Amino acid sequence: MIAFMIRRITQALIVIIIISIIGFAIKQSVGDPLRELMGISVSMEEREEFREKLGLNDPWYVQYGRFLGNAVKGDLGTSMFYKRPATEVILEKAPATLELVFVSSLIIIFLSVPLGIFSAIKPNSLLSRLLMGGSIVGVSIPVFLTAIMMVYVFSIKLGWLPSYGRGEVVMIGGWGTGLLTVDGWKHIIMPSIALSSIMLPLFIRLIRSEMMEVLESEYIKYAWAKGINKKRVWFVHAFKNTLLPVITVGGVQLGVTIAFTILTETVFQWQGLGFMFMEAVERSDAPLLVAYLMFVGIVMVGVNTIVDMIYGLVNPTVRIAGVK
Amino acid sequence: MQKLFTRLFPILLVLLLAGFVQAKTMKLAMDADPVSLDPHMQLSGGMLQYSHMVFDPLVRWTKETSIEGRLAEKWERKDEKTVRFFLKKGVKFHSGNELTAADVIWTVKRLKDSVDFKGIFEQFEIPVQVDKYTVDIITKVPYPLLINTATYIFPMDSQFYSGTDAKGTDKGVINKTGYSFANDNASGTGKYTVVERQQGVKVVFKEFKGYWDEASPGNVEEIVLTPIKNDATRVAALLSGDVDFIMPVPPQDMDRIEKASNVKLVTMSGTRIITLQLNQQRVEAFKNEKVRQAIVYAINNAGIAKKLMKGRATVGGQNSPNGYLGYNADLTPRYDLKKAKQLMKDAGYEKGFEISMIAPNNRYVNDEKIAEAAASMLGKIGIKVNLKTMPKAQYWDKFDEQVADVQMIGWHSDTEDTGNFFEFLLMCPNKETGYGQYNSGHYCNAEVDALTLAVQSETDDVKRTAMLKKMEKIAYDEAAFVPLHWQDLSWAGKTNLQIAPIVNVMNFPYFGDLVIE
Question: What is the pLDDT of residues B224-236, one digit of tens each?
Answer without folding.
Answer: 999 988 888 899 8
